Amino acid sequence: MKKLLPIFIALILPSIAFAGTRTFNHTGGDQTFIVPAGVTSINVALWGANGGSRIGAGSGLESSDGGIGGYTTGALSVTPGQVLGIVVGGSGTGSAINIYTLGVKPGGYGGGGNGFGGAGGGGRSAVRISNEDIMTAGGGGGADADWWTLTRTHGGNGGGLIGANGVARPAWGPSSGLGGTQNEGGLIGGTKYRGGSCNASVGQGGGGGGWYGGGCLITGGGGSGHCGGPGVSGCTTTFSAGSPAGVNGRVVITWTNPICPIHSHGTHPSCVCDTGYTSN
User: Are 118 and 106 in contact (CB under 8 A)?
Assistant: First the structure.
């Protein structure tokens, strides 16, 4: 009878499900997420970073926006204690309004390509397993540096299966960096994970990082988003209205722990309330 008492008590105690959230912001370096005890599935939302903008005197034709980072969301099957790599993209460095103010404008962390005269591309955000992206939100392309523009120009938006091309003034013809795709980087210079970087002979706005990065040219192309890898399900990648973190990217991971006794108050082995996590 005494041996059965603990089992009987466990059965009659009320229980609830503990939900957890972990938010990753841009730090300029690699980050990790360790799957809590008892958790076998997580939901992930990722926003890529914006490309750098041309720094002008206002919102008129003398300014040009960097492309907006993309958005990717989906579920991932995991195992307790598994370590996931996290990349949170940083925005590209802005450019001056005078085309003659040349020099390198660094792209953002996460594969943003450097601008030359124009602005740097935004970095991608990603969840990684074994140093490979399994979910990616593309970064936006960098703006140009030409204040003579007669029509509004901007870097290409990141995200989606194909990142958007940059938009340059029509008088220059097809002079914008192309968006990255699912199979190759955009022209000029986009590669897997990295946007194309500009230099003295190829300028101005850098490409956005992505599954495949956007190209560098007068305005940078956007990097592509991506869904694919072991355990990924219900995943979509699209353009976005912008990251909740502003110009930088963000990654948010949520999960529900197994049923936990109320009396544990998060101290039960499967009810994780460690520093950096929130439960409700």
Answer: no
